[in-house]
Structures are given as C-alpha cells and as structure tokens.
Amino acid sequence: MEAALKSEEAVPLFDAAAERFREVTCTGLLNWGNVSLCLAHKLLDGFAQESEVLTDEMAAKTEEEFKKAEGRYQQALDFHPEFFDALCALGQLEFERAKLRARLLVKPAAAPAPAPADKAEGAAEEGGAAAGKEGGRPLDAPARALREALAKVRAEDVEAARPYMQRAAEWYKKAVAAANAADAKRKEQQQEQETQEGAGGGEGEGAAAGAAAAAGGGGAGADMGDVSLGTQALIMEGNVLYEWSQLLAAAGAEWRPTLDGAVERFRGAACSEADVRSALKNHTRAAELDLGPDPEEEAAKAKAAEQEAAAAAAAAEAEAAAAAAAAKQQPEKAKGLPSLGRKKP
C-alpha cells in the first residue's frame, strides 16, 4: 500500500481527490450562503405581512443576511474562482438587492383551504372571479400579489436599483464564461476517457472520471443530465431580466429592451417557443405585446373544425343510408290486374 502511494501512478489519483475535496468544500460554502439567503426571504415575508412599505430598518436587517450569504459565496470563489454555482448565486444576490433597493415588498400567498367535494366547483368559479384577470385569464394568488406590490413601487427607488442590476449582469457574464469553459473541458475529459476505454486502457479510469466531474464546476448545476451549464446560466439570467423588466414597467421606465434581452437568453438556451410565449403571456405588460394568434389555440380550432366537418359528413352519409334503406322497405304497386268493371256488349 505504501509503495503504491509513493509511485508516480498515484499522482493523478491524488489530483482527482484534491479536486473532489475542493468541489465539496465549495458546495458546502454555497449551501451555507443559501441558508442566509433563505433567512433574508423569510424576513421579507414577515415584513410584507406586517407592513405595506419596506422601511429602512427592514431593509438593513435584510441586507445583513445578504452580506452573510455574499461572504460564503466569495469564500467558495476563493477556493475555486470559476465555481459556476457561486457565480450564479452572486448574480442572483445582486438582483435580490436590486429588488430590496426598489422597495419591492411582495406579500406571500396564503395556501387556500381545501373546499368540500360538493362545493369544489362553485368555489373554483368564485376564486377565479375574485382573483382578477389579466388579458381575459384569471390570475393566481402569487401573480396577483406581485402586481399589487409592483403598483406601489416608486420610480426613484427603481432608478436607484440600477447599479445592482449592472453588477448582476457582470456576475452572469462571468458565470456564462465559466460554464462554457467547464462544458468544453468536461466534454474533452469524456472524449479522452472514451478513447482510453476503446483502446482497452482501463488503468487510470477512476482518476479520469474524477477529473471530469471536477471539471464541471461543482455544485448542483454540474449534475443535471444533458442540460449544459451554459444553458442553465442563460436561463437564470433570462429570468432575472424578465422580472427586472416588470419592475421597470411599473416605474414607467423603458422596459421593452430588457424583456427582449430576456427572450434572447431564453432562445439562446434553446427554450421551446411555447415556453417563451407562455412567459410573455404572463408578463404584466402582456397586453402591450404583439404576440399574434396563439399557435396552440389556432391548432385546436383547426382540429375542432376538422372534427366538426368529419362529424357532419358522417351524419350526412348516415342520413343518406337511412333514406335508401327506407325506400327499399316500401311495397311496390301491383301491375297487370284484370279490370273488375262490366264490359259493354
């Protein structure tokens, strides 16, 4: 055992082990920071239930938790400067600070009490009416709470939040770069491993596998199947831009370019057009967007028309068959019977 540890062949194993321990350390620090972020959200939920406005004291208490989270994320980057999840977390944290500076205080949606079975249908109808509608569609409780909060923000507060959004954009730019590098390195490691396996080189496979895993950047984002880290980064940044565009719209500022940027990220991440369209339909300014006819609704209408035409054709065919059958069942008139009248002499 001691001889094996001292051999040159053990060096790749030690390197892979060191990378794995570094990854675990970074992930632990990330989750530690996430705890502080969750505590900040809990504080905000409590403030929203007891007050209509976010005071300076409330903001200061929330910022204390934000700073704790930031410290843990930065510690993770000290161990691994390109740690993908920490870079994304710092981008999200700056967006949370932007919302805090904008004095956005959203009341948490209370879970509805279960209705009796015999009243479930009526309750659902009443709930839809009470929830309000956007573009003819009923809003759920979280969407309604967000719109109520957005209606209270002030333009000067949203304007003061712009520097935080700039810092968020910088972090996401670093995250995308780190993700692309990690994806490329992981692909290279996998190709090397496949080459070794194809050549029958089983020696050192464990070290290669460990290095490939470490190259992914670490954390939860490194283990999401076929979804690349670059795709994840684009989707997260797109979500931030989407929400920020709603804040800008509420403040009366120019919001369309920001929303266009969000859509660009979504499409860059290969999100389906149906998902992108669904997000746009849920935007607070959806009524101002020229979305055109809904492809799904148009397809449903076309299918319904096709089914209706087929049903009409089947009904006409059945009616014609019934008429033909009825005609066959009628008795024919007698022909060639002798006249019963008396003949003249």
UniProtKB/TrEMBL annotation:
<feature type="compositionally biased region" description="Low complexity">
    <location>
        <begin position="320"/>
        <end position="329"/>
    </location>
</feature>
<protein>
    <submittedName>
        <fullName>Uncharacterized protein</fullName>
    </submittedName>
</protein>
<feature type="region of interest" description="Disordered">
    <location>
        <begin position="320"/>
        <end position="345"/>
    </location>
</feature>
<dbReference type="InterPro" id="IPR044517">
    <property type="entry name" value="PHOX1-4"/>
</dbReference>
<feature type="compositionally biased region" description="Gly residues">
    <location>
        <begin position="198"/>
        <end position="207"/>
    </location>
</feature>
<feature type="region of interest" description="Disordered">
    <location>
        <begin position="110"/>
        <end position="139"/>
    </location>
</feature>
<dbReference type="InterPro" id="IPR011990">
    <property type="entry name" value="TPR-like_helical_dom_sf"/>
</dbReference>
<feature type="region of interest" description="Disordered">
    <location>
        <begin position="183"/>
        <end position="220"/>
    </location>
</feature>
